[in-house]
Amino acid sequence: MSPVTVLLIAVGYFSILFFISFITGKDSSDDAFFIGSKKSPWYLVAFGMIGASLSGITFISVPGAVQGAGFGYMQMVWGYLLGYFVIATVLLPIYYRLNLTSIYTYLEKRLGVYAYKTGAAFFLISRVIGAALRLYLVAAVLQLAIFGAWGIPFAATVALTILLIWLYTFRSGIRTIVFTDSLQTFFMLLALVLTIIALCTQMNLGFSDLISTVRGSSYSQIFFWDFKPGNNFFKQFISGAFIAIVMTGLDQDMMQKNLSCRTLGDAKKNMFWFSVILMVVNFVFLVLGALLFIYMDQMGIEMPTRLVSGEAKAATDLVFPTIALNHLPFMVGATFFVGLLAAAYSSADSALTALTTSFCVDFLDFEKGKSNRKTRYIVHIAFSFLLFLVILMYNQVANDALIWDIFKAAMFTYGPILGLFSFGIITKRKVPNNALVILVCVLSVIISYFINKSGMALNGFQFGFLILPLNGLLTFLGLYIISFFNEN
User: Fold this and answer.
1) CA within 20 to 30 Å of 130's CA: 341, 346, 377, 407, which one?
2) Which residue from 86, 407, 128 is spatially nearest to 245, judged by alpha carbons?
């Protein structure tokens, strides 16, 4: 497709988003922005959360990661189900019982203001990194499909990408996002289905042929039983459960949508249906990944590359956009592009809203009578600019499938949050309300980092993503130790 055609598609898509924003943005109060006035239908939240959870990372990076990891990603996805069960039965009842807007205020009620601010700060760091990486992907594709051909610099593409999010979320926040996320999820799944159909058509594959072709390929391995590598089934399953708990249940972005539901029962129904559908959709994305690489082999299409430190490196993240935009029928390419925008923006827009919510509530005490709309707008703009800077920095070092970079960041930034919440829920002990809490959380990250970097290899054993629960455990143990110094 020509750059002009792609641009027109993008304009049409964002026109729809702005229309939704106009309709839902009549109430610009803090209550509407933060928790949707607790009027969100659970089924819309569940459907929209699929897109927000998958994001552009899953849309592009999971199919691309099939080349090196096969279907091994499903080992983590099955672990997600256990994590979502914990969220529905343990965390959501706590959040609703305490009527929270920011979930990190639980830490203040249970462990004191230092634990509260520390947990919220780690969320802000984690979400800025995660949102930036997700937005980097859509900016890279926009550059590939439109702006690169016109000689527009990547920084300008990134700025436009973030500006569009700000424009349709700055008034009503989560109230708007519940509806835009549902629309974006629909487009993402439509693109997934149409691309698979187009690939099967071009390779003359019926449904049974599709199954046998994928199953017989070198990409279809699911289970990895060797206990030493990081992709071992048990390591991946356990890691998946903890990743779901921290990246959904202990994440203001994802929980903000749940807390906008009318009742706890609605929030639980949302979590159940969301987890089931998410598992199925992730599997279909892996099927798509296998088909993409099989198609490339058959057609002799070269692997896309990106420049890293002046050297061309294989870019599996660009396999899906390269084939969809350049080798498949126009309708598929157009739907792919809308699906990519939908997948990327369904995650990034809610992340920007969650960052604004957390900073306003957790650090500016908006719930304590200091709320004003002007300040909220300024915070929204500030986080938009911060995302812009982080994306540009990441562009200088990107050298892996983004899905793994997202999880690597989560291993360290969510570990202290996991430890803080676990200590508060599992024990009845208190901790000193001073900087010792901050010290424990920072040290757990540093120790986890060096364990991961050195491998702490025991005859070749690798922790992989188990660094996340290890990080949380170190925080938990540190809090337990300093609890003996509690003076309260």
Assistant:
1) 377
2) 86
Q: Do 91 and 252 form a contact (C-beta atoms < 8 A)?
A: no
Percent of the chain with pLDDT over 90: 18
The DSSP letter of residue 302 is: P
Sequence-ordered alpha helix ranges (H) in 71-171: 73-86, 92-97, 105-111, 113-145, 154-169
Q: Where are the alpha helices (DSSP H) in 435-466?
A: 436-454
Q: What is the CA 304 to chain-centroid distance, rounded? A: 24
Which among 34, 32, 39 has a CA at the least distance from the CA of 261? 39
Separation between Cα atoms, residue 168 and residue 20, nearest integer Å: 8
Q: How far apart are CA 439 and CA 435, in angstroms?
A: 6
A 10 A CB-CB count for 222 gives 14
CA distance 448 to 208: 46
pLDDT category of residue 233 using cuts at 50, 70 and 90 = confident
Q: Find the angle CA(207)-CA(211)-CA(212) to the nearest 5 degrees.
A: 115
Cβ burial, residue 393 (10 Å; 0-12/13-18/19+)? exposed
Q: Does residue 33 surpass a pLDDT of 50?
A: no
Q: Which residues contact 438 (CB under 8 A, 6 or more apart)?
A: 114, 118
Residue 423 clears pLDDT 90, i.e. is over it: yes
Q: Which domains does the chain have, with CATH numbers?
A: 3-400 (1.20.1730.10)
User: Which pLDDT band, with edges at 50, 70 and 90, does 30 fall under?
Assistant: very low
Residue 84 contacts residue 248 (beta carbons within 8 Å):
yes
Phi, psi of 319 (to 5 degrees): -65, -50
**How do residues 152-195 score in pLDDT, each as one tens digit?**
888 888 888 788 777 766 554 455 666 777 777 788 888 888 98
- Please state, in angstroms and rounded to a whole number, the distance separating the CA atoms of residues 266 and 262: 7
Q: Cα–Cα–Cα angle for 210, 215, 218, nearest 5°? A: 120
